[in-house]
Specification:
alpha/beta; 2 helices
Amino acid sequence: MVNGMQLFDMHSHILPGIDDGAKTVEDSLELLFCLKNQGVTNVCLTPHFYTNEISLEDFIAERAEKFEKFKPHIPEQRFMLQSIFSTMKISKV
């Protein structure tokens, strides 16, 4: 929090192993710590969704699976960030 304001990172590729972003849980945690140290309080995980590569249903299922596997590794919310949201970036090709 900076000057009493919450800071949001609305575009990140922190969710491990789903796109060209973080490859491992360790990579993801390092990125979260960097954001926290910069004052970010809320993060939106926005992996790429390419409409020509995977169906929306399959992408949502994969993203949910990756997020559920990642959640146990996220340090306690009170220590890290206030909120982590699972979202997506849509790339229509």
